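Summary for the funding panel

The consortium committed to producing paired sequence-structure records for every protein in the target list. Below we show the first two records in order, beginning with the earlier of the two.
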Amino acid sequence: SLYVSEYFSQSAQKLSFYSWYGNAKLFHFHVPEDTVLLRWLLQASRGKGPECTSMEITVHFRHGAPPVINPLGTRFPANATVRPSYNISITLGSAVQNTTFVNVTTPAAGDWFIAAHLPEAAGRIEVKGFSTPCPYMFQADMFVLRLTDMPVLEPGVPMPHTVVSPAKPLHVKVFVPKHAAGMRFQLSSCVTSEQRACAVRVLLGSITLPQSFQRSLTCTGSINCSLALDSPPWEKWLQIMVESLGTANASVSVEMLASFTVCRPGSTSSFLNFVSLNQSQAGARPGAAGSSAPAAGEAPRNASGPRSSCLQSQPVVREDLDVVSVRYRLLNGPGVPVSSLSPTLLLLNLNTGMDSGGSLVVNLLLNKTSVSLANATVAACVSAASPVLSLNATRNCSTAFSQGYPLSVSTSSAEATLIVLYPQTDDWFLSLQLLCPKGQRDCSSAEAKVTVFAYLTPCFNDCGPYGQCSLLRRHGYLYAGCSCKAGWGGWSCTDGTKAQSVGTQNLATLLLTLSNLMFLPAIAVAVYRFYLVEASVYTYTMFFSTFYHACDQPGVAVMCIMDYDTLQYCDFLGSVVSIWVTILCMARLKKILKYVLFVLGTLLIAMSLQLDRRGVWNMMGPCLFALIIMVTAWVHHGAKRRHCYPSSWKRWVFYLLPGITLAFTAISVYAFMETNENYYYTHSIWHVLVACSVAFLLPPRDKHKKPWAWSQKLTCRYQICQNDREELYAVT
């Protein structure tokens, strides 16, 4: 046999602390056919700075779709099926780098996904630039060993083969046809080269994670051994590995035989249904619309006659709506007839490679008037790769190499819903059959009508009222995740264990918005002292900060007067410009120079905020530059007057020192104390402290200007003007 090794690599990604699925870094690989060995090379590293500590990285694996993970231990939505992911932990201790290998023998071909993340996020809000977070990097590489000339086992034809040694197992493959109800594998004529007792182990199927249903068969002696499989995967290559359990130098000769039991499908519709499609759906291929395209051309069945086929297929049209958004439409209407003689089968096509990043929702609604037997139950199974063709009372929904998802409806419980999170890339099948409590003979002529609604959505229920559905991307692959708000958690933001009450949400909104009214004293002081430009800036800041925080709320107490991004930009711009004009006003510059700096600084601040809205230097840069201008101006004034400036000790004690104290306290709260839990009151404290500091720091008005006196400014009466001109004439 000729083996070929291949290597696949993806760029390293910076890991994040986990708070929602978007924090997990996803790696997407494609394993080729006939792969006999898969090896993952996982490399994790961290920075060398003092802020870097020991860290545990969790890595999840899954075949066919992104792994469904729950590091926070939150609840999933009702009716959602969750199977734990296969994961390993990588510890970064004293060593800066860690290299880990993960081997998978006979892996399933197709898409494989790896998700890596750090532990739960602490919830602290860090200002960009104040602290340097430690970089934790992760990279996944994939090595595959592929067999280029894997022998093909033809159905019904015995094939002799030789296992050279235990170190070199034999790999063969067989193609499973469509509508295969069962498969039987038989091994016979087992002979060793040393004429000893024959001992071999046969492994059927490939390994998939997180769950693997690989079937094992151990054969000893010359006795024939066989293994029967129900519902093998349709239209796929099935790998078979035979390994010797004998001595190291002994070869084993065996003869293998694979046979299939094929199910003849029936149809409940005629080809005329396809012709009745409207023009917008005329391009759909009949073969892709139904689970059995050849049967679509048969004559419609006689509803009163018995069904002779082992399954009845219903034609289904896949309708793509948007990214990771698909609707399945039954050509005969949503009502599906279900009997007890043979299961009714619906094909849900999810094999495009771009459908595994959403949620598959299947809803069944029983028409109670259509069931003649009161105690009858309609059992249903949703499975991938192959349908469940034998639904009995146990309803375990298992196929040859996978475990399906059971559903049931009855007159007492007429509705059932199933949510499959991140369904694997494959053909999915919905099987329905009528079951009677006293046996199938009691309801051989009975029939039930079940309304079926099936669709693929990016986020189930659009993440609810307390979540936001975000479309994530890794290279060309798209998948969706829910980002929860107001203390809600869970996969679809349905876990209200730590949720904020409506009263708490209203209180948070009121605190964050009404705290901006503390700018009113600063505006009044500025107007009283003739700082009209400064007062206009404070009014602008108060207005947009109030409505930005009214729009930024995570719960139900939300009001947006314009686009969120516009409100956020105006709020940030007003905050920085307010600091800029206040410090320049304290410098007591000449009017023309002060207003030039006002305009020029505002333009530069607007540009920097457009480049990086959350950068700390967007605020610290203008502050430091304005402080340099103010200190320079104060030194100039002091040197010119030959005493300290400002000269009044009352100005320092009652105005400047309280204002500086409030400003530094506000900066400390903003930079070091804010978390996701206390944001609504710590940020409100920031609003109050900044607004009060402005009122204290504004300098007094110029001495030659009088305070506002409306009776003098707005007059309508005559005034006697005094002529101060000197009379330059000579008296003679």
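The next record, for a separate protein in the list, is shown here:
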Amino acid sequence: LSVALCAGAMCCAASSAASLHHDYCVIGAGPSGLQMAYFLQRAGRDYVVFERGHAPGSFFALYPRHRKLISINKQYTGKSNSEFNLRHDWNSLLSHDRRLLFRRYSRDFFPHADAMVRYLEDFAALLELQVQYNTAIIHVTLDADPQAWNGHYFVLTDQNRQKYKCSSLLVATGTWVPNVVNFPGSEYVEGYETVSINPEDFAGQTVLILGRGNSAFETAENILGVTNFIHMVSRSRVRLSWATHYVGDLRAINNGLLDTYQLKSLDGLLEGDLEDLAIVKDKKGKLHITLRYYLENRNTSAGIDSITLPQDELDNFATRAPYDRVIRCLGWKFDFAIYNRSLRLMPGKGNKNKYPQIKPNYESRGTRGLFVLGTASHSVDFRKSAGGFIHGFRYTARAVHRLLENRHHGVPWPSTVYPITQLTNSIIKRVNEASGLYQMFSVLADIILLKENATAFEYLEEYPIGVLAELETQTGRKAVNGLFVIIMEYGRNFSGADKDVFYYNRAVGEAQHAWQSNFLHPVIYYYKRLPTEREMRLCPPDWPLPRPDAIHHIVEDFLTDWTAPNAHILPLRRFLENCLGTDLRNFFAESCFLFAFTRQKLPPFCQQGYIRMQGLVGTRRLQGHAMEAGLLENYTVTGFAGDRLLSSHEGSQDQDHTMITRQDHTMPVRPLQHVVNAKDE
């Protein structure tokens, strides 16, 4: 017996020794897995990506079945700013390599899925990412160790029983398990993942589609012109993306069936709980829709003639006509099967049950060190923002990487310190070009941390607002003197399946009504101190953040160009000044010179510029421009009349008068009573 035990221990030790260790293990080489791999590689971290397929992006090799992506690929925006252009490029991953922009792989506004497959292959190859292909992880468990980063290691086992030990686990597998509803007769239903995509196979047939998402309408669009008619049934009403402002809802490219339904061309939409349905097949192979309770206590094998159908009691029952085919298009869910119970990776609640439960920092609620990336992390912003799609999760993956860099390697969240005079400019620049703020509206925010006495500020980009209360521990930055939070928002009551987003007077144009803006626009929250976790928990459900000390909406703009001096910049600057109790205007040297003699405290612009001999050196052209714009009076000295100075408008034409034109605005020569303040810009 002792020999047997010893042998077992030796086997265990050998197995442990054979385990391969990495600091970071990424499961899945789809877009989110490759995006995280890029950031880990750029940081010089020890990582590996496991991919069960022979190439990255295996999901896109099959889906969408009809091969047209619904993520836009806008070639032209009229601007050369690469950050701005990412606002309208929903397919590219983030990288330093300009060759890896998706517009180089397709010119189609809605690209072919094969272009995405090629793009992901090149992304992994050109950047030399550490991807281990043909490796299917079939089991994940924990190995407790107090010396590990998180108090345990993650032990992964592949299809060849090879084990891998990881300090941190990043799950990027997406949602790929088809949603299936079981009801009597569901064995007659074809799945979206296997149904024919050849329209001729449906010629002259009557089809019922279960589901009402883009996959359902995509399938209907493909066969719309060859079927007798198509019916579509789901438990919820159709949600149009232009009304909900959620890109996962029905897109216009797939909604042809709505036309044929509302214009009475035989096709139609129905609402009902799929679990209440039942399908009965007759001798001719036709499929009849009935309700589950009609089949209770009945022998369905006895034949259709002995089964009561709804039309037997209600002769105008909507689905009384038999169908040739029933197709299931109900989307996908996360695969929980490979995770041991010790990880406590649980499904979400309600309509989020297809995703794992995670915190706002994308870390599992049950296990420290396990982060979920990509589509599977969409529970954080489901039906609110773009975190389930490439143009959203490319930014959340970067945010997770920055959180990990601070937690495990002591690298604080990237930031830049500016003098307070640059506050207005910094905000205007970001809201006009930042793509992360724009795509992940109401989820990622720019954070401005004020320095003591508001003389400077520290700017952090695209931080997850769900963990705002933990900002100091998550970023390694201090927020002791107050902060501004900049996010993008739609109007409170402008989004919803039942909303008319095309109503008259839907837009706001006046700055004083900016708080009523409906379309996506910047909102600035001001806090004198960092909100607490309790305040975050008690935040109203329709508010992304707790009640601030002050709030400012920059009025919506038809061109999404928030650079108008009067409508956008001036109200913002005055809001910032009111919060800080300071003057954020820019001044000419004359004004700063006057303030130095007439005020106890100079404005920050004069303190940080004029007094330190910084700023533009005056020239004839600059002075002339200022006078033409009405910013300065023309007090240029042109000569002398006896012992009296002549201004330009009263100077003599005598050629003997000496021209004295001041070239340096920092050294005024005229009397103080002639110096005027720069007008409010």
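Regarding this second record: The domain at 186-330 is CATH 3.50.50.60 (FAD/NAD(P)-binding domain). Residues 211 and 679 are 62 Å apart (CA to CA).
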